Amino acid sequence: MIGRRFWEIGGFVAGAVLILFGAVAIYMGVDGRSTVRDALKQEQITFGAVDDPAVAKYAEQWAGEQVETGDQARAFAQIMRFHTVNGEWNPDHLTYAQMGRFLAADDPSNAAGTSDEAAALKDENGSPVSNSFRNTWVTETALTTALNTSYMAEQLSIFGIVVGVALLLTGIGFLVLSIGGALRRVPASSPAAAPRTTAAATG
User: In which band, very low, low, confident or very high, does the pLDDT at 196 lie, cut at 50, 70 and 90?
Assistant: First the structure.
């Protein structure tokens, strides 16, 4: 009797805790998603026209619209990378890691540059001139990382909502089982009565 009562109380407590955790997870997920979208709207980022090859490739359905969601932020990050890799100043499609720290003295217009100070272009003070093309990559990386982080944050918020719903349903299930008596011990059935025999009458 004590054991059965213990499981019944445990079912109620577990159900209540799971429902509480589920509700909190859903609230945090919804709040996080709303925070991400509000922050994106404040930046006033707008997609270009569809005649831009990058927009046509990654965000044709959002051409001319403002970036307001995580998916749109990710698409805009892809557009920025496309522009940086395929820019007119970057005919060799170099990435940040492939560029030197300084502009090369023999070809300052080459984005590849050089990391050799002796071969670098010098300013009026004799110091090597930093590779401005490489600095463009630094800016692109910082901005796209922020946009991709917005996408990741929104996805985590959605995941939190899904987990919250799962916890909520599990907690409700525990309460239903406890209230319905599914955890109660089934009483033992009484032994079947022995069949009554009648003695045959003999004449």
Answer: low
